[in-house]
Hints:
Elements: H1 2-22, H2 25-48, H3 55-66, H4 79-161
Amino acid sequence: MKIIMILTEALSLFKNLVNDLRGKRSLVYLLILAFSVAIASGLILYLLDPNIHSLFDGIWSAWVTMTLVGFGDVVPTSFLGRLLSATLILFGLTLFSLFTAILSVTLIGKNIDTWGHDVRQLEQETSRIETEENQILHELARLHERMDALEKQLSSGAGKDS
């Protein structure tokens, strides 16, 4: 029963994450870039390397290399093929860094929006309290002036009686 609750909670969090990421254009651009580079590099590998026997093998090799999986089932053997694969490894590292950054910004940004709303509420409450405090201080100053005036009257009235 507890496992079902945990799985339900995890599924709910995953759905929220997917909904938050759905509006991110940068993620779409990143995926388009990744697929474009994989297809273009796969074509180049197919044309350059004798060990890449089909366009699909070239795209597969490029994708596996970019994602840093490296199954080893399709491996370039020529110098230019290996050089391209080394470049794809560096490109893959960059892609994963950007993906992680987009994911982090999405998650942190959501919390910042909530935090910003809370800060605005606190600012409004602080402003209201400051206004009330200023009214109280003004009233205290007025009472202090009245008390000083009364003390003067009492002291001047006491001086007349003597």
